[in-house]
Amino acid sequence: MNSDIQSIVLSEKQIAEKVEKAAKWLDAKFEGTQSVPLMISVLKGSVMFFCDLVRAMDTPVQIDFMTVSSYGSSSESSGMPRIVMDLAASVEGRDVVLVEDIVDSGNTLVKMRDLISGRGAKSFTVVTLFDKPSRRTVNVSADYSCFEIGNEFIVGYGLDYAQKYRNLPYVGILKREIYEK
Ligand code: PRP
Question: Is 104 a catalytic residue?
Answer without folding.
Answer: yes
